Description:
The structure holds 2 protein chains of 2 kinds. By secondary structure, chain A is of the alpha+beta class. Helix content of chain A is 42%, strand content 27%. Chain A has 8 helices and 13 strands. Chain A is elongated, with a radius of gyration of 33 Å. The N terminus of chain A is likely disordered. By secondary structure, chain B is α+β, with helices and mostly antiparallel strands. Chains A and B meet through β2, α3, β10 and β11 of A and α1, β4, β5 and β6 of B.
Amino acid sequence: MFESVSLFWRKEAxxxxxxxxxxxxxxxxxxxxxxxxxxxxAYGLEPWLRKQDLRQLRRREKIRFSADVNTELPGxxxxxxxxxxxxxxxxxxxFNFTISGVLRALxxxxxxxxxxxxxxxxxxxxxxxxxxxxxxxxxxxxxxQGQPLWKGTQTRTWTWKEFEGYRIDGSLLQxxxxxxxxxxxxxxxxxxxxxxxxxFQLNVPRLxxxxxxxxxxxxxxWFYRLEDDLCTIAWEYLDLFxxxxxxLGLRPxxxxxxxxxxxxxxxxxxxxxLQLNWLDSGTEERVTASGFSLWHSSxxxxxxIGAIDQDLVDRIAEWVRGALRDAETAREGVVS
Amino acid sequence: xxEAFLWVLVLWMLTFGGxxxxxxxxxxxxxxxxxxxxxxxxxQEGEPARGLTPLMxxxxxxxxxxxxxxxxxxxxxxAVAVALVAALWPFYKRSATRxxxxxxxxxxxxxxxxxxxxYLGEGTFHTRLLWKDCFGYSVYRGTVLFALQPxxxxxxxxxxxxxxxxxxxxxxxxxxxxxxxxxxxxELTPPVQERLEVRVREVADDVIAGYGAExxxxxxxxxxxxxxxxxxxxxxxxxxxxxxxLALWEGPECLEEQDAVLWSIDPxxxxxxxxxxxxxxxxxxxxxxVAGMVEERQTQLGLTPRPLLLQ
Lengths: 336, 311
């Protein structure tokens, strides 16, 4: 191998004919073509594989919620490093001009393989994580992150029966079985409401009444509307119990309380809750009081009430009934 | 022989030497484009042990170079060049490019130039965080956690430049999400403690002076006193604390007391919680406390009506 060296730039070297140059180019294209196909098969097949999976899934089950999430942080811009390309291009050029024979073919193959691999490693699909919620369960396609084909696919499937319930933690949707975390996927923050509605319709139980969310995830106007709606619902429940309340001689006082002024809802240690006070209708003395927390912030994360629709209405009804029972017991304690 | 030398030089530049050149060029370009307010070099402690594997690629390149020509001159040139690179290697290893991370802060955002311990093509040179994407920050154990909007956290180490870094962030108006910094033991030195105490005392005095009129009407006064506590919390753990005690006095009788913890040291867990806020929020916090005390007293005496609940 080492005898078949031709030094292109040396003055006393044999001049390179056009024919030799074309032969070198042919070799490069052949070896490079094989290398490109090989690297594409190893690193670039993920989008096509996912599409095939999804097509089969759509035939089998009914998809209720679909999400394709880019798991890279949107705010942090990481400038990609393309100096690898320079390195391998220089290596290819030097190889073609200095060495010939089998070694050169191998060099061409390696160089073009690395270039195509670099191209596929920096495509946006490497950071995409998809999941689909269907009637039967959840299907997750984890992000590839540059793993070649022989590392296997990252698809997981679970049915709803395998989970005890779900929790929302920031931008992560977590499914639990007892104390163990079985499945964790990332969802788009703008899908927060749609996701909860879909899970409610699929009858997946909620493990916590509150979601732990990033403080910047809370939409303030939406939260103020929610506060008003919940206050109205709670008052309607109180109206249902009017006779009993009058019989006990109590007067209810219900409203949304906050411990910070309006525009500082997202500050550290800001709380917002429904406060229900029972006052004696004669003496205006407070008999009992109880609260239903809606929002509790700790600066960077907060606990936001996460139940929706009928679930939430049921919980508020339960709370009002519980408060009334407490007031009743307090009253009876006084009387007897 | 010159050729051999140039070959080795090109090889070195393409693998490791390029790090220095490219990083310097990127830094200059960045400084020319953006108006940099502050620069912090953060030294990374210790380097990950990589053994001989980083040298595989240059070694392969070198072996292939020897196959270019078998003339004695050429090989001598190669040997000389390799010896030179090996002699300069320790200096390269300890250079700023390999060990120090540079933080450049300007009005629109912050750029982080990471240290370059690998090849030219590995890793990233430049990462940027724009302030409009940043919701706030908090300090935790040697790093500043930037909360991004709407989700995500970015951790950035600050080395020894905590106070300067936090000062620049406050000047730029980025909100501090959590008032208490969690720091390592050794970061709470006596100068730091003293500066904090002096600052908080001054602000407290300002706040109390602001309530002069109301207090004269009520006939009371408020004092602010520093207290140092050494208490045993639950499970008998010792905790050392410095507390600012605001007390409402009527004559010789103390009606109400409020404590604001300035710093607390947990010697077992080797952690310190330090109260650290920009000046305007510090004033607001103390003002809220004093206002709360004064208003409660006023309500008790029936001077101000009680606020109604929202219905």
